[in-house]
Amino acid sequence: VFQILVTFCIREEDTGLYDVQVNSNPSSDLRLRVFDSAERRWRHLCSSEANQLLANISCEEMGFVSVVNYSVSSIPEGSNDREEFFCVKEKELTYGKKIKESLYPCDCETGQVLSLLCQDCGRRSLTEDRIVGGVDARQGSWPWQVSLQYDGVHQCGGSIISDPLNISLHLSLSLSLSLSLSLSLSLSHTHTVSLLSHLLSLSISSLAYTHFFSWILVLLGSIYNKLTHKNVRVLEVKTVVYHSSYLPFVDPNIDDNSRDIAVLALAQPLHFTDYIQPVCLPHYGQRLIDGQIGTVTGWGNVGYYGTLADVLQEANVPIINDAVCNAPDYYDNQITTSMFCAGFEKGGTDACQGDSGGPFVAEDSLSKASRYRLLGVVSWGTGCAMAKKPGVYTRVSRFLPWISSAMRTYHNSPGVHKMARTWEH
What we know:
By secondary structure, this protein is mainly β. It has helices spanning 51-61, 195-200, 206-215, 322-325, 400-410, and strands spanning 3-8, 20-23, 33-36, 41-45, 67-74, 85-88, 103-106, 112-119, 135-136, 145-150, 153-160, 169-171, 180-181, 185-186, 216-220, 233-243, 262-266, 293-298, 313-320, 339-342, 359-367, 369-380, 391-395, 415-419. The chain has two domains: 3-119, SRCR-like domain (Mac-2 Binding Protein); 123-425, Trypsin-like serine proteases (Thrombin, subunit H). A hairpin with a 1-residue loop joins β21 and β22. The relative contact order is 0.15.
């Protein structure tokens, strides 16, 4: 586990830095600091009974998902920092809300300040050049990419977002499956319907859930969708949490794919390596930028009528303005606020069947060090790589509170769970 420091500074528009900054050097000053915009100076965070909650939210705010540890330290006698403090209004501190909204200048009577370390993310340990343009990825290029498999065959993608103590996978609910299972879980209709929706539509016992999970395996650590690399791990699923307002679960004939999101927990511990790493989530309030280039990866069909790729594919595509994507010749107002489009007007490069649930990531230096963030999850689209029919993705930034709540609520609850919206932004 990489250990990093979270501190706070003023947003510098000319550098593109977010007001939460990190330092990857564990020997540096670990004290949490917040920039006082009114006084134009730094303040340390005074230690309080809310230290653990404050540490957790601080890490989440910058997209780091979880805190490694936190501690308190005393301000040295005679220090110039004696009047540079923020205290927290403990009752106002809550997940999904920027911590600066819950702070006020104070004298910090305890003389102790908060330090913290977050779980690192979005970093690629292997530095090989990557191949772009819808072709093979290189081993270790996208260490958060996973393959969800049934009977040894790839079905859809997912992304590692956290350590083994939390929900570890993030994937779309629209799994394009063309298989028949026992328990009468066959896909007979023409809509793209989740395997989970069939499972949940049946009144089956928790024992059946156990059998179901034993059939579904998660492959991690490889660009190949089969167990052919020494660094590959294959693990079972323990928990599934899906959004209860995903309407195709209510009626498979509904075409609205809003809130197409779920999180999974693994049954076995997950140890990070050069080939297995978590991706960062967006920071609180992060907005998509029209035209920004992101990378979509997956083992989906190479062409609409093609076969699954043997090697992980990657392609760079630009984010499309919502108004453009909702135009009559594009998707005619089917794109909701929980989605976004990415692709080219002429088509040619796109996600396809089998890519569902996989990541759309973009690199930034909002925390000085370059990191990749999970901006989108492959959800749906008309055909594959067609003109004016780009891929449609779940907008992850809209579901940060939902993801956080799902992880905290169900991390110790095996089975399949549905959870309603919680402070979606």
